[in-house]
Amino acid sequence: MSYRIALNFEDGVTRFIDCKPNETVADAAYRQKINVPIDCRDGACGACKCSCESGSFRLGDYIEDAMSEAEAAQGYVLTCQMYPSSDCVVNVPASSEVCKTRQSEIEARIGEVRQLSDSTISLTLESQDIGKLHFLPGQYANLVVPGTTQHRAYSFSSMPQDNRVSFLIRNVPGGLMSGYLRERAAPGDAIRLAGPLGSFYLREIRRPVLMIAGGTGLAPFLAMLERIVASGGSPFPIHLLYGVNRDSDLVETERLQALIRALPGFGYDVVVVDPGSAQPKKGYVTEHLAAPQLHDGEVDIYLCGPPPMVEAVAQHLRERAIQPASFHYEKFAASA
Predict the structure, then answer these.
(1) What are the two backbone dihedrals, phi and then psi, of residue 27, each rounded to the nearest 5 degrees?
(2) What are the start-end ranges of the E strands in the chain?
(3) Same domain, yes or no, for 227 and 324?
């Protein structure tokens, strides 16, 4: 038996390690060739101080000079004295380069390319190594555009299954990746993938959750919801606001309907900017942030969309004097 520990470095790189029973996180990291900052190994210097974002553990002996009671109460840990009793997420205040680790890189092949709408392409990659690819739902990977040395960043839209993983790609006129997928991609083509990356990921669910997606910003939420279903569901309600410009931009609604059936307490609303939309909710998502979904601020908000949408939602919350318990967001912009 072992526990899976996600180490999130300050440069956005995440590495997963396995920690044996009665093994410290620091020792487990070193065993797997990740040099988390550490000096004394006996809880006296504080050099290995990190924060534990989720999971349970016990701490061994350490002195007040290394970590105060107030810091421990805030979730700080000394990895040289941290003995996990569940899977954990640990934030390391150092770059992955300093800790002598780097992104995982795998060679995958295209399994399927589907044009879901004029604005969205679904890409499925497959590889035996994908079964070994560990990431937190919501994170992204860098995909190297075949035939070039350039890469583009895309959020995983599924968790690994049967050595396959998927992405939602915005179809950008003149876009390097979307142009390749539209015009030249074929099953079996090789694509190099590096990751996982990013601090936008699903945290432990401790209160109601509001997810807000703009366009292909739906991708990380599909992965998050898959993980919630696989882990047995949520004790709190989860609501998704999915905003697009036109009805024709809507994608993956069948997956969302399947998630409603599989996940009690989950619901979603579609919001379409086009005033001629057939959808009942029209305009921008800020016009449809209803009080029941905001729970008087006792809510965790996750937002993924283009920068103007992210900024508009943040401004809207400020104007309504709503301070959510947590607010996690990721902005994305198209690259030509």
Answers:
(1) -65, -40
(2) 3-9, 14-19, 49-54, 57-59, 76-78, 82-84, 88-92, 104-115, 120-126, 140-144, 151-155, 164-170, 190-197, 209-214, 238-244, 266-272, 300-305, 326-331
(3) yes
Domain membership of residue 238 as a residue range: 209-331
> Which of 167, 197, 227 is the endpoint of a domain?
197
Q: What is the largest CA-CA distance in the chain?
A: 66
How far apart are alpha carbons 72 and 70 in whole angstroms? 5
Pair 87, 4: CB distance under 8 Å: yes
251 part of a folded domain: yes
Coil, strand, or helix at residue 294?
A: helix
Nearest to 50 by CA among 26, 70, 19: 26
Measured CA to CA, the distance from residue 202 to residue 209 in angstroms comes to 10
Residue-wise over 43-65: b if at least 16 C-beta within 10 A, else e? bbbbebbbebebbebebeebeee
Mean pLDDT (10-residue bins), the chain, 336 residues: 93 92 94 84 84 95 87 92 96 83 84 96 95 85 93 94 95 93 95 86 94 97 97 97 97 97 97 96 95 94 93 93 92 66
| 321/286 Cα distance (integer angstroms) | 14
Q: How far apart are CA 300 and CA 217, in angstroms?
A: 17
Q: What is the pLDDT of residue 210?
A: 98
Q: Is residue 49 part of a domain?
A: yes
The neighbouring-strand residues paired with 8 are 14, 91
Does one domain contain both 216 and 325?
A: yes
Question: Residue 111: what residue type?
Answer: G
Do 59 and 131 lie in a common domain? Answer: no
Last residue of a domain, one of 26, 58, 92: 92
DSSP 216-269: GGGHHHHHHHHHHHHTT--SS-EEEEEEESSGGG---HHHHHHHHHHSTTEEEE
Single-letter amino acid code for the residue at 5: I
